[in-house]
Design brief:
50% helix, 8 strands, 17% strand, alpha/beta, single chain, binds 2'-deoxycytidine-5'-monophosphate, 221 residues, Rossmann fold
Length: 221
């Protein structure tokens, strides 16, 4: 195993942006595990596979190929060779991904892939269960948090910038709903690892959070 930074936290805590920045500064490969759960969800939607249909789910997991890449400075996600970077961010996927990620068969397969991906490289891996389940011995563990209201506000702003109009109240509702499912599921729920460093980013800028994490990594590497 290379050097591993595990970055966990709830939806909208800024993990994506922060992971990308820290990866650049510290020369780490950035692995977005949420995107992997989104890929499985997209395949299930496309093939109309229900949560109960374990046989079909196993079939897609046996054949699934997920790769990350960078094109013109942008992070890309390839699912079985197809660029699905945008397709995994739709409202439909947002709504179905939390239930899909409660499934044991999905979690085990993706956690294995995540461990495999990090065998020979230094990574910063973001998700919900990286410090607790995927890499309990990660070199650095961070739990990044912010209030649901602040996270909904950030998501609202991001949407505005890309021309998506969803009312703030609706976003807040969806953030709280995902928090609930993610933290109450039976297998590897979202929770802070005992030895993770807690960062509340509610009143911090992105640069401030990045700087804090970079300093933590520098001390350990
Ligand atoms: O980080 P995100 O919003 O793209 O994650 C999408 C969903 O995937 C999230 O609702 C919970 C699930 N997930 C998970 O269960 N475990 C992870 N390590 C990463 C994501």
């Amino acid at each position: 195993m290379g050097f591993v930074v595990a970055l966990d936290g709830p939806a909208g805590s800024g993990k994506g942006t922060i992971t990308r920045e820290v990866a650049k500064k510290m020369n780490l490969i950035n692995i977005d595990t949420g995107a992997m759960y989104r890929c499985v969800t997209l395949l299930m939607i496309r093939q109309n596979i229900k949560l109960e249909d374990k046989e079909k789910i196993k079939e897609i997991l046996d054949k699934i190929d997920i790769k990350f890449g960078i094109e013109n400075g942008e992070q890309k996600v390839y699912l079985n060779g197809e660029d699905v970077s945008l397709l995994i961010r739709t409202k439909e996927v947002n709504e179905f991904v939390s239930p899909v990620s409660t499934l044991k068969i999905v979690r085990e397969r993706l956690a294995d892939m995540q461990r495999e991906m990090s065998k020979a490289i230094d990574v910063i891996m973001e998700g919900r269960d990286i410090g607790t389940n995927v890499f309990p011995n990660a070199n650095v563990k961070i739990y990044l948090d912010a209030t649901p209201e602040e996270r909904a506000k950030r998501r609202f702003k991001q949407n505005e910038e890309i021309g998506i109009q969803i009312p703030y109240e609706e976003i807040l509702e969806s953030v709280k709903n995902r928090d609930y499912i993610d933290s109450h599921r039976e297998i590897s729920p979202l929770k802070q690892a005992e030895d993770a460093i807690y960062i509340d980013s509610t009143n911090m800028s992105i640069d401030e959070v990045v700087e804090e994490i970079v300093n933590i990594i520098k001390k350990k590497r």
